[in-house]
Amino acid sequence: MFFNSLVTNFAALEVGQHLYWKIGNIRLHGQVFLTSWILLGALLVFISLGTKKMENDPKGLQNLLEFLWDYIRDLARTQIGEKVYRDWMPFIGTLFLFVFVSNWGGALIPWRLIKLPSGELGAPTADINTTIALALLVSLSYFYAGLSNKGWRYFEYYVHPTPIMLPFKILEDFTKPLSLSFRLFGNILADELVVGVLVFLVPLILPIPVMFLGLFTSAIQALIFATLAAYYIGEAVEEHH
Amino acid sequence: MLAFNFFGATEGGLFDINATLPLMAIQVVALTYILNSLFFKPVGNVVEKREKFVSNNIIEAKNKLSEVKKLEADLLNQLQSARTEAQRIVSEAENESDKLYKEALELANNEANASKEKARLEIESQTSAARDQLSKQADDLSELIVNRLILEK
Questions:
Q1: A72 interaction partners in chain B (CB closer than 8 Å)
Q2: How far apart are CA B31 and CA A97, in angstroms?
Q3: Could you say which of B11, B36, B42 has the minimum Cβ distance to residue A51?
Q4: Which of A132, B72, B90, B121 yields a CA-CA distance of 20 to 30 A from A156?
């Protein structure tokens, strides 16, 4: 009985409900695209404002953007290495910015105030499709990076210390995108659920520390995702002798 | 209802994978290109230009500093050589004046000695002349005395 009432109560959270858009035979999660467009639009506006008048002595927004750029460059350079980090910096930076903006946007903006016919707006990264898309892009990237930098010698990586490693390295190609996508998805969804449940049960004060924890987790997850993506690419282009 | 239908959900569910996935991937790739041209390239250009500017300035300043040090050492060398030169000139002048003094002293000594000698010789000659004269007068006198004594007899 209790479980039933809990389920009906949780129904207010609308877990796993989606706003479906149908284009021909294709079905899309509309709420994911809506929030991502809003957040990415804000990001692009922010960046265009900051880079509109670039000066040699940075002021205001330009300063912030340069700090961000430097942060991403350091991240890419330490993980990928001096030689090819320039090629991959935009991708790593985009992953970081996309995940960060999605996570924080999902946590900071009171999306619940906007009523949808079905499902609810939230962090785009709390949808498994988004995180799998990002993780698969990372997989494609490191394969492409390895093959374009080392040619067929890339596959030496699979038998690198000894050929015994071969099955494990092949398995890694599957576990990498799996862990990347599920880590991000799980963290962000769990954060949204915890905050949702707490707000539902105790609407005052108590959710606030959890919300701060959520912001912290969101930022950390963005950093982890970008760092791991850069690390995988770095691993693929690394020359071992 | 709580749609916790895992894989195989037809409608809804947390793990409902559909065309959102490839479209999101395309969207992220497009975002990469947009951010590259809007953010990474322009900011990178500015930052790298500034980094180059700063490092160039540092190199230039280092070059200038080493040049200044070289010039300083050069000046110090010049000063040193000028000092030794001055010392040399002073000691030379001292030697010269010493020599001149000694020469003059010697000359004066010689002159004094010469005139002393001359005076001595003159005195001697006069003394001998006076003695001669005296002895002649004594002779004359003695002759006179003798003559007178003889004549009286």
A1: 40
A2: 10
A3: B42
A4: A132
Q: Write down the pLDDT at residue A12.
A: 55
In the predicted model, what is the mean pLDDT of chain B?
89
| A51 to B38: CB separation less than 8 angstroms, yes or no | yes
Inter-chain touch A90–B21, beta carbons under 8 Å: no
The pLDDT of residue B153 is above 70: yes
Please tell me the least confidently modeled range out of A120-129, B65-74, B110-119: A120-129
Chain B closest-CA separation from residue A165 CA (Å): 31
Residue of chain B with shortest Cα separation from A134 = B25
Signed CA dihedral, B12, A222, B31, A238: sign only: negative
Phi/psi at A27 (5° precision): -120, 135
Q: Is B83 exposed, middle or buried (0-12, 13-18, 19+ CB in 10 A)?
A: exposed
Residue B1 has pLDDT above 70, yes or no: no
Instruction: Say what the ipTM of the complex is.
Output: 0.87
Residue A82, classified by CB atoms within 10 Å of its CB into exposed (0-12), middle (13-18) or buried (19+), is exposed
Interface test mutation site (partner B, options A18, A39, A99, max chain B beta carbons within 10 A): A18
From the list A212, A217, A214, A222, the residue with the least C-alpha distance to A101 is A222
Comparing alpha-carbon positions, the chain A residue that sits nearest to B47 is A66
Distance CA A1, CA A91 (A): 51
Contact between B47 and A70 using a beta-carbon 8 Å cutoff: yes
Residues forming a β-bridge with A215: none
Run means of pLDDT, 10 residues per run, chain A, 241 residues: 45 71 86 92 93 83 92 95 92 96 90 82 90 96 93 88 90 94 93 86 85 92 96 89 63
Residues B16 and A185: their CA atoms lie apart, in Å, by 13
